[in-house]
Write a structure and sequence with these properties.
Helices cover 38% and strands 18% of the residues. It is α/β, with parallel strands linked by helices and 392 residues long. It folds into 3 domains: 7-128, Flavodoxin domain (Rossmann fold, 3-Layer(aba) Sandwich), CATH 3.40.50; 137-278, Rossmann fold, CATH 3.40.50; 282-390, Trna Endonuclease, Chain: A, domain 1 (3-Layer(aba) Sandwich), CATH 3.40.1350. The chain has a 5-stranded parallel sheet with strand order 2-1-3-4-5. It has a 5-stranded parallel sheet with strand order 7-6-8-9-10, sandwiched between helices. Strand 11 (301-303) and strand 12 form a beta hairpin. Helix 1 (19-32) crosses helix 5. It is flat and about 60 Å long.
Length: 392
């Protein structure tokens, strides 16, 4: 299947020792999404003038120079003129203006001062190319009387790194139905960080949270307390074994125990890495369900490398179905509209965001139904796909 369009990732500016590691991490996450490496074109000063396509998705990293000797400014100005996404990268944000060209000074830069920040940088790139949704959501599951201080530590550290974190004591507004909001936020999360303390499964609520996360195929980062083991009920999760030295004063036996800053940083990076895999698994589940419904109804569909599904019904009407994880948001509508403009092979397609509505609150589903009446892009619940495909 020929790709509908390719993604361009450009490295310009002063050559950086992390370039190859960034490429490899990016390729790894592309493959986790079930996409081919051929979908990505890497550009630098050597092939930019020949291979750059202004009508294809583009993300540019401009690497600053510590001595202010800015390179490739001609290519930079061309990308600015084309309204391309450009991220200035420096090794020291305190010297941002000295290390980055003036035309990039108004853009929030990224500090790449160590290899540990590569996963975060790759996440930003993938969001910019719409390969990952740019709502960054994490759900912390824990037993209050065993790990509340660690939960708050992680809440603060993950928020500092750009995540929208759900923590029951901080995230449910007064007057909201607690259980409904809990499951809704889990349905709309990227991963679950599970604090696996010895008594975790002795709580009814934490047991239910684990079951829900597994049922919804959400990636679980399981932090396993010292002297404890990975729960058999969470075998699909990624284990992160904690040692007594990971805790302040080697103390880990009650709710006042806390983690060292060094291990908190490692957990944040592990969350960044798991996020792409988790979203890919949930997207694949929606794709599989839709294609299965199409086979049952005898409707011909095409799954493109970008995980976009095209459908042509018997009446000749073309449709573009975009699998959407979590709650469809306004930005996702806008991304879908921009993406469909690049599909030149389809004439006047109707566009649908396909999502799983299970555990999403009714007020949000009613809102999406209202939007369907007013916007050119519609939504469809994956469980309604078979019925929709049967209609002429």
């Amino acid at each position: 299947m020929t790709p509908l369009y390719k993604y361009q990732l450009t490295f310009i500016g002063t050559p950086n020792s992390y370039w190859e590691k960034i490429k490899q991490s990016f390729y790894t996450h592309v493959e986790e999404l079930g996409m081919l490496r051929d979908l990505v074109v890497f550009l630098d000063e050597n092939n930019f003038d020949i291979e750059y396509k202004p009508n294809m998705p583009m993300y540019c990293l401009y690497f600053g120079d510590p001595d202010g000797k800015f390179q490739n400014t001609d290519k930079l100005n061309r990308l600015i003129a084309d309204a391309s996404l450009i991220l200035p990268v420096t090794d020291d944000l305190t010297r941002f203006k000295q290390t980055i060209p003036k035309q990039l000074e108004t853009i929030n830069g990224f500090e790449l001062s160590s290899g540990e920040k590569i996963e975060s940088l790759v996440g930003v790139i993938m969001e910019g190319l719409s390969l990952l949704r740019n709502t960054r959501r994490i759900f912390i599951s824990y037993k209050r009387d065993e790990s509340s201080k660690v939960a708050i530590q992680l809440f603060e550290a993950l928020e500092k790194n750009g995540f929208d974190v759900f923590l029951d004591t901080h995230s449910v507004r007064p007057g909201e139905p607690f259980q409904e909001e809990l499951w809704h936020r889990m349905a709309d999360t990227d991963i679950v960080v599970l604090l696996n303390t010895p008594g975790f499964l002795k709580s009814e609520w934490t047991t239910k949270e684990l079951a829900k996360a597994n049922a919804m195929m959400i990636g679980i980062l399981q932090l396993i307390w010292p002297t404890h083991r990975q729960e058999r009920e969470a075998e699909l999760s990624i284990p992160f074994q904690l040692n007594d030295t990971d805790f302040g004063n080697n103390h880990f036996t009650n709710s006042n125990s806390y983690l060292t800053n060094a291990v908190i940083e490692k957990i944040v990076q592990q969350a960044e890495s798991l996020r792409a895999r988790s979203l890919a698994a949930r997207q694949d589940n929606i794709v599989t369900e839709f294609i299965s419904a199409a086979k049952k109804t005898g409707v011909s569909v095409i799954l493109h490398p970008e995980k976009i599904i095209t459908v042509t019904k018997a009446n000749g009407q073309n449709y573009v179905m975009i699998p959407t994880v979590g709650v469809p948001q306004a930005f996702r509508y806008n991304q879908a509209e921009d993406g469909v403009k690049k599909i030149a092979s389809l004439k006047n397609p109707q566009v649908y965001l396909v999502y799983d509505h299970i555990n999403i609150r009714n007020k949000w589903i009613e809102h999406l139904d209202w939007l369907d009446k007013h916007l050119p892009i519609k939504t469809i619940k994956i469980f309604d796909a078979e019925q929709w495909l049967k209609k002429s």
